[in-house]
Structure to design on (351 residues):
C-alpha cells in the first residue's frame, strides 16, 4: 500500500457512524511512552535519536499491532506526504515539521497509528468514529501490551509513566473527542461551551490540535492532566459527563434554531450547497465553512439529496495535500482553488 491510496476515501474518524455521531465526529485515545534508560528526545544526541528510530521501528513492526501496517519514514517523506498524514490525523503537525529521525506506523484501516520520536519516544493513538471511547481504550491497551512485551517503558512507582511533558505524567493517556458545533457558533453560544470546558478542566482546540483554529466548526476537547487519575476515571468522565454535556448544548441550539429561525437556517444551508455545486474557484477555508452548514442541514433533515458520509469525506478530500495527491501533482493556490471547485461539483452532482 502507498500513501496515495489513502486519498480514495475518508479515514476512520470521518466514517459518520457511532454513538452521537451527529455531534461527535470522532474519539481518540493516545498514550505517551518512553524507553527506560534512555533520555527524553530533546536530551538525546543525534546518534541516540537514530538508534531509537531504528530500534522502535523493528519492535513495532514485529509486535503485530494490526493485520496490515505501513511504516512511513517521516524524516525522508516529502512535505506533501507529511501534510497528507497531518490532514488525516495520523501524525501531528509537530511530528511533520520536526527535523529529527522519526517515523510512523499506520494500521492500513487507519484505526491506529504510532509516532516514533515525536515529543516522546512513542505516541500511540487509536481512532474511532462517534463517541466510541470504550472500544478505543480496549484497542490501545492491547497495542500497549504488545509493545510492552518487547520494550521496557520508563515507569516510576509513585508517578507512573514518565513523559517529556509533565501534564502527561501518570497514565500517559490523553482522551480527545472531535465535536461539530455549528449551531452553537451560529447562535453565539459557543462561549458557553468554552466555559464548560474550562470548568471541567478540559483543553479545547481546533481541527488539527494545539495552536489551530476551529475550521468548519470542528472543536477538539481533551483532558489536560493525567497524574493522580486512573485511565478508567478519565474515560468514564468523558463518556458519562463531559461529552454528553456538549452534545446537549449543541442539540439544544439546533432545536432552538429550527423553532425560531427555520427559514434562516434553510437559507444558509441551501445557499452553501448551491455555492459548492456552482463555484469555479474556492479555498479550503471557504469549503470547510460551507460544508459545515451543509452537514448541519443533513443532520437536521433539511437536505435529502446529500448523504452524511459524502459530506464527511469532502471535509477531508478537499484539503490541500489530499487534492494534490489525488491529482498526482503539486499545485499553486489558485490552481488548487480551481481543482477543488471541480472536485466538489463532480462529487455533489453539479455541472
Amino acid at each position: 500500500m502507498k500513501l496515495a491510496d489513502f486519498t480514495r476515501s475518508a479515514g476512520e474518524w470521518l466514517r459518520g457512524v457511532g454513538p452521537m455521531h451527529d455531534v461527535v465526529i470522532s474519539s481518540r485515545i493516545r498514550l505517551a511512552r518512553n524507553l527506560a534508560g534512555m533520555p527524553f528526545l530533546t536530551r538525546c544526541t543525534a546518534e541516540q535519536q537514530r538508534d531509537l528510530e531504528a530500534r522502535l521501528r523493528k519492535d513495532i513492526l514485529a509486535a503485530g499491532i494490526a493485520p496490515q501496517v505501513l511504516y512511513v519514514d517521516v524524516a525522508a517523506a516529502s512535505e506533501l506526504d507529511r501534510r497528507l498524514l497531518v490532514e488525516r490525523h495520523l501524525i501531528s503537525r509537530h511530528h511533520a515539521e520536526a527535523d529529527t529521525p522519526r517515523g510512523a506506523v499506520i494500521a492500513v484501516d487507519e484505526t491506529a497509528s504510532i509516532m516514533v520520536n515525536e515529543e516522546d519516544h512513542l505516541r500511540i493513538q487509536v481512532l474511532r468514529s462517534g463517541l466510541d471511547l470504550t472500544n478505543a481504550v480496549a484497542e490501545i491497551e492491547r497495542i500497549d501490551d504488545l509493545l510492552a512485551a518487547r520494550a521496557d517503558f520508563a515507569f516510576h512507582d509513585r508517578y507512573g509513566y514518565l513523559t517529556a511533558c509533565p501534564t502527561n505524567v501518570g497514565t500517559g493517556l490523553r482522551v480527545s473527542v472531535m465535536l461539530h458545533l455549528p449551531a452553537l457558533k451560529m447562535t453565539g453560544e459557543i462561549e458557553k461551551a468554552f466555559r464548560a470546558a474550562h470548568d471541567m478542566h478540559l483543553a479545547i482546540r481546533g481541527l488539527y490540535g494545539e495552536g489551530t483554529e476551529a475550521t468548519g466548526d470542528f472543536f477538539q476537547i481533551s483532558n489536560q492532566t493525567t497524574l493522580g487519575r486512573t485511565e478508567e476515571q478519565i474515560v468514564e468522565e468523558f463518556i458519562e459527563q463531559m461529552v454528553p454535556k456538549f452534545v446537549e448544548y449543541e442539540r439544544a441550539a439546533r432545536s432552538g434554531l429550527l423553532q425560531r429561525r427555520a427559514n434562516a437556517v434553510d437559507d444558509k444551508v441551501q445557499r452553501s450547497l448551491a455555492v459548492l455545486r456552482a463555484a469555479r474557484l474556492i479555498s479550503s477555508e471557504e469549503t470547510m465553512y460551507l460544508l459545515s452548514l451543509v452537514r448541519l442541514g443533513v443532520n437536521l433533515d433539511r437536505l435529502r439529496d446529500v448523504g452524511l458520509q459524502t459530506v464527511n469525506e469532502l471535509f477531508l478530500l478537499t484539503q490541500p495535500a489530499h487534492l494534490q495527491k489525488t491529482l498526482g501533482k503539486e499545485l499553486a493556490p489558485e490552481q488548487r482553488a480551481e481543482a477543488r471547485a471541480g472536485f466538489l461539483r463532480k462529487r455533489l452532482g453539479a455541472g
The chain has a mean pLDDT of 91.
